[in-house]
Write a structure and sequence with these properties.
heterodimer; A: alpha+beta; Four Helix Bundle (Hemerythrin (Met), subunit A); 4 domains; four-stranded antiparallel β-sheet; globular; B: alpha+beta; OB fold (Dihydrolipoamide Acetyltransferase, E2P); 2 domains; five-stranded mixed β-barrel; 4 helices
């Protein structure tokens, strides 16, 4: 009965979304005196629609939590002996549930906008909500007509098939919702962009509204991607963190577009320039989110990450993608001529630097796009079957990323409108020397001799110090007395610190990548109990093998003692697990943190005569690879808490213009 | 600086970057791409041993041997069989009767030296390319393969 009620609220939510879309578009054609009434109806519809959908999703959660095996997807993806947390996570560990979550986020974000967007122009708000509703209609229609999560079975089995064991993991339970918040979060900038084109209202005010929503989506996307990467690192048992796999690229593409959008919106907000470019980016960013959803859901590309794949239903997502993008681009072609261009600036200026950032990010995006979709294209024209591997992406992506990162701290020091490159460089000379000294110290301490890795470490340190220096410079350290500067530092806007955190995160990430690609150590050895293995100065002793049983799996655990220079560092265990109802085993890895590096062990093949294969790695500074994105994400959220930055401040803008 | 000059500068910079990217893409295409072949194609066509290949097939029953860290097995597309040697991480889902995708180079004596072995996260997985090539050759029997996978897993 509960399932039918969930189905009912789902359909009701669809109907209300349809209604919201129609009413929301009316103010575009109607006289202004009716706008208030129409808009308040749209607002309420948005909230009601989200509540109904949330109810429907909550019911599905409840059914999963109580293991109701009369529902098809619960039988296929859950099991009664599984911990409650994974029963709940199984709700979005399948196609139907995850698409329902996707549409839920669309609706909830729409409802948030209708609740907090009161200061927006009425016509603009109602158009935005209508576009948001149009998205909801498309996705909900897709669910209701092809992917009903509440489908019942005629014969009710007593037990389910269990969730794919690899998904029974905390990181992967949290990863999809976070990633979806990022993907779908970009729907709001998209709706804003379409509404701006329809109402012909593209200005600084618009950029001010777009920025926090983009920031939110970007921060979630950053976190989601990092979490997925960490999961792959320890769960797939081969210690890699990024494979340039199509599914990973599918999330990287919207991230690159969102990063570009974030920066171009700053130019638009502060200087009124780059209006039509920013609109285009907002459209493209969400288009890439939909493309990512399509690539992942359809399984059209061979990927190690693809779960819950269904090619036929994938086609429907492609149709939705095509409809929204064709519509958006036509509208853009038709209307973008009306966008006023303001804010002239010299090539060497903050605007120029941010524009260069955008151009480079876009070109990086193009290379990932080409590499990811080229095999599909070649296959479609029937020429041959091929795959594009990691070397392609390393050779195209990195040469473009490096200049962008080198220029980042310099661009940050440039003033608006017109700047002098040499003056900015002079301000940074000490930062560079300090970075260089740090690199030399690093080399001296580690004794590595690898010129490319040196350069990469220098780049990472340059970014970190550059980010710190930027904020110290804003507080005028070195120009005024230090205690005055310190006071200024505490009074700086939170957004300033947010920028520092995010850019520092990039540097930290670069350091991690540099260390991992240059100094990773690996050792594979066949062992029996009592054997020893050394890796990067650590010693591993094989203590014993145990068989263990948990509620939903059996495992063979190998226990090792880790020591360094004769000092015992504790026990490290790796295991092969076999889950109930699922024939395939999984590997559990053993990890030991050593500063920011990790000792990583995993069982390879369990051979005969009590011989096991052990793979051990020493991964230097590997934690920085996820610490970096974490800092970026924190920066994003910190910036969101800075309300001062978002109040419209035209007077200050004018004054600034006079002073420059 | 007038608006026209401004736009001109940016268009030039944009085009230069795009040109650079095109150059990078074209050079990277040289060795970043591997062509998909079936075991039959490998054995019947003339294959350049310098060329990176991607091969899909089913792991033959009773063919898997471990020699130290070296893994030897045969793969089949139900028409031809190909010997494979692989050294590296063996995915948990690798087993006889299962579909796999390999990447690497063909040796002079027609042994495929793989440096990457892909078996997927799902036990009913058949790599898309393998499924396509089996279908193309009329060997596609969905139930048969599923039953086989089931049997192996039991």
């Amino acid at each position: 009965m509960l399932a039918e009620f969930g189905q009912f609220t789902l359909i009701l939510s669809f109907a209300i979304a349809l209604f919201q879309m129609v009413i929301g578009l009316l103010p575009l054609m109607q006289h202004a005196d009716k706008h208030n009434m129409l808009s308040s109806i749209t607002n309420r519809a948005a909230v009601l629609q989200a509540i109904l959908l949330a109810l429907s999703f909550a019911i599905l959660l409840l059914l999963f939590a109580s293991s109701d095996f009369s529902l098809k997807i619960i039988v296929e993806h859950s099991h009664s002996q599984k911990p409650l947390f994974y029963k709940i996570a199984a709700t979005w560990g399948n196609h139907e549930g995850s698409i329902l979550l996707f549409s839920l986020i669309i609706s909830v974000l729409g409802a948030c906008l209708s609740l907090f967007g009161g200061k927006l122009d009425i016509k603009f708000l109602s158009t935005t909500l209508a576009i948001q509703a149009m998205l909801a209609v498309a996705i909900l229609g897709f669910i209701i007509f092809t992917s009903n999560p509440f489908e019942r079975l005629n014969i009710v089995p007593i037990e389910g098939n269990n969730l794919n064991p690899l998904l029974q993991d905390w990181a992967l339970a949290v990863h999809p919702p976070l990633l979806y918040l990022g993907y779908v979060g970009l729907s709001i900038p998209f709706s804003f962009a379409i509404a701006a084109l329809l109402t012909e209202k593209v200005d600084e005010e618009w950029a001010k509204w777009v920025r926090p929503w983009t920031l939110f989506a970007w921060a979630c996307l950053t976190g989601g991607i990092a979490l997925g990467s960490y999961w792959a690192y320890y769960e797939l048992g081969w210690g890699g963190f990024w494979f340039w796999d199509p599914v990973e690229n599918a999330s990287l593409m919207p991230w690159l577009a969102a990063t570009a959008l974030l920066h171009s919106a700053i130019v638009m907000e502060k200087r009124g320039a780059l209006g039509s470019w920013t609109i285009l980016l907002a459209i493209v960013a969400f288009g890439l989110s939909l493309l990512g959803t399509f690539l992942v859901r359809s399984g059209i590309l061979t990927s190690v990450h693809a779960f819950a794949v269904d090619p036929e239903r994938g086609i429907v997502i492609l149709a939705i993608l095509f409809y929204f993008m064709a519509g958006a681009f036509s509208l853009y072609a038709f209307k973008s001529g009306h966008i006023k261009q303001r804010g002239v600036f010299a090539p060497i200026s903050r605007e120029g630097a941010l524009l260069l950032n955008n151009l480079i990010l876009s070109v990086m995006l193009v290379t990932v796009f080409v590499g990811t979709l080229y095999p599909l294209f070649i296959d479609a024209i029937g020429a041959s079957k091929l795959s594009v591997g990691a070397p392609f992406f390393n050779q195209t992506f990195i040469p473009l990323a490096v200049p962008l990162l080198i220029l980042l701290p310099i661009g940050n020091m440039l003033p608006w409108k017109k700047a002098d490159f040499l003056v900015a460089m002079k301000k940074l000379i000490w930062v560079f020397l300090l970075a260089f000294a740090t690199m030399l110290m690093f080399l001296y301490l580690t004794g590595h001799r690898d010129i490319l890795a040196w350069a990469a470490v220098l780049l990472g340190v340059w970014l970190v110090f550059g980010a710190v220096w930027e904020i110290l410079y804003s507080a005028r350290f070195g120009q005024i007395e230090w205690h005055l500067a310190l006071r200024r530092l505490f009074n700086l806007r939170r957004a300033k610190f947010a920028v520092m955190l995010a850019h520092m995160g990039v540097g930290v990430l670069v350091l991690g990548l540099a260390a991992m690609s240059a100094w990773r150590v690996q050792n594979i050895q066949e062992m029996t109990v009592g054997d020893k293995m050394t890796i990067a100065g650590f010693e591993l002793e094989f203590d014993n093998v145990q068989n263990q049983t948990a509620s939903n799996y059996n495992e063979i655990v190998g226990n090792f003692t880790l020591s360094k220079d004769g000092v015992n560092l504790g026990n490290l265990a790796t295991a092969k697990r076999r889950y109930l109802k699922r024939s395939s085993p999984t590997t559990e890895v053993g990890l030991y943190n050593h500063y920011f590096g990790q000792v990583y062990i995993a069982f390879g093949v369990l051979g005969e005569n009590n011989k096991v294969q052990l793979r051990a790695y020493y991964n230097p500074l590997v934690l920085l690879i996820w610490l970096g994105p974490l800092l970026m994400m924190l920066g994003g959220f910190l910036s969101l808490t800075d309300r001062r930055g978002r109040k419209v401040n035209r007077a200050a803008l004018k004054q600034e213009a006079l002073h420059v | 600086m007038t608006r026209k000059q401004q736009r001109f500068t940016f268009i030039i910079v944009g085009l230069a970057l795009l040109g650079l990217a095109t150059g990078l893409i074209l050079t990277a295409m040289e060795d970043g791409i591997s062509f998909f072949k079936t075991p039959t194609e490998i054995l019947t066509q003339k294959i350049d041993s310098q060329k990176r290949l991607r091969i899909g097939g089913l792991v033959m029953d009773n063919s898997v041997k471990h020699q130290g860290s070296l893994l030897k097995f045969d793969i089949t597309d139900n028409r031809s069989e190909l010997k494979v040697e692989y050294e590296g991480v063996v995915p948990d889902l690798f087993k006889e009767g299962q579909g796999v995708v390999l990447e690497g180079y063909l040796s002079q004596d027609k042994i495929f030296l793989a440096d990457s072995l892909l078996a997927k996260h799902d036990e009913n997985y058949m790599p898309k390319e393998v499924a396509d090539s089996l279908k193309a050759q009329g060997h596609w029997q969905d139930d048969d393969i599923k039953a086989k996978a089931q049997k192996v897993s039991e």
